[in-house]
Amino acid sequence: IAGITQAPTSQILAAGRRMTLRCTQDMRHNAMYWYRQDLGLGLRLIHYSNTAGTTGKGEVPDGYSVSRANTDDFPLTLASAVPSQTSVYFCASSARRGGNEQFFGPGTRLTVL
Amino acid sequence: QKEVEQDPGPLSVPEGAIVSLNCTYSNSAFQYFMWYRQYSRKGPELLMYTYSSGNKEDGRFTAQVDKSSKYISLFIRDSQPSDSATYLCAMSAMYSGGGADGLTFGKGTHLIIQP
């Protein structure tokens, strides 16, 4: 089934630990994105990648890093998790950068204690 | 002022009613407008995608964009209990060669269709 998969589905993490959220798409989309969704704040862009080998910072990039070694995978890493990173994380992709429709994965629910 | 304003609701209407969901925005560079539906504990699902001003219809859903007023709407006809969800508006500027390329979202309106 074409689409975006994310792993894990949910995770409870101790503060200070390193965590990588995985995202894979099989639509051969060039652009990929990471958002976090928080109650009262909505969806906010963390990092994006317009094509394999390039990445950029979004609205709330601090404490997060990404890499884009190939077209399909776009992992998000929290180097040293803090409680304020408790959130639901969504990966998305679009065929091209800019105004194209973005398609979302099912999300990862992360709790940092 | 936030870039995109959306009433969080909840908006509760009886089954069969016409629903009107709206967003206003301040950035005149926005050219692409989308509506997403999000069920509880699920990812956003793209419903409608429009470019610039005008109307677009897809089944029971109609998206309307008025760039002069910086106002977009989503209408749902013959609403069903299965339409109960959070509806997010999202928008994007044209490709400019730089800057973040994610969407700017409204905070979502929680819609409840009463059977």
Would you kindly provide a written description of the structure presented here, covering whatever features stand out?
The complex is a heterodimer of chains A (113) and B (115). Chain A is mainly beta. In chain A, 0% of the residues lie in helices and 48% in strands. Chain A contains no helices and 11 strands. Chain A has strands at 4-7, 10-13, 19-25, 31-38, 42-49, 56-57, 64-66, 76-78, 87-94, 103-104, 108-112. In chain A, strands 2, 4, 5, 6, 9, 10 and 11 form a 7-stranded mixed beta sheet that branches. A 4-stranded antiparallel beta sheet of chain A has the order 1-3-8-7, with no helix packed on it. The model of chain A has no long low-confidence stretch (mean pLDDT 93). By secondary structure, chain B is mainly β. In chain B, strands 2, 4, 5, 9, 10 and 11 form a 6-stranded mixed beta sheet that branches. In chain B, β4 (30-38) and β5 (45-51) form a beta hairpin. Classes of the chains: A mainly beta (113), B mainly beta (115). The A-B interface holds A 4, 31, 33, 35, 40-45, 48, 50, 56-59, 90, 97-107, 109 and B 31-32, 34, 36, 41-46, 49, 51, 88, 90, 92-95, 100-103, 105-108.
Distance between the termini of chain B: 37 Å
Q: Averaging pLDDT over every residue of chain B, what do you get? A: 90
Helix proportion of chain A: under 10%
Identify the overall geometry of chain A: globular
Largest sheet of chain A: 7 strands, mixed
- Unreliable residue stretches of chain B: none
Spell the H/E element sequence of chain A. Answer: EEEEEEEEEEE
Secondary structure tally: strands of chain B: 11
How far is the N terminus from the C terminus of chain A? 35 Å
Radius of gyration of chain A: 13 Å
Can you tell me the overall shape of chain B? Answer: globular
Structural class of chain B: mainly beta
- Helix content percent band of chain B: under 10%
Q: Rg of chain B to the nearest angstrom?
A: 14 Å
Strand runs of chain A, count: 11
What number is the mean pLDDT of chain A?
A: 93
Helix-strand category of chain A: mainly beta
User: What fraction of residues of chain A sit in β-strands?
Assistant: over 45%
What's the quaternary structure here?
Answer: heterodimer
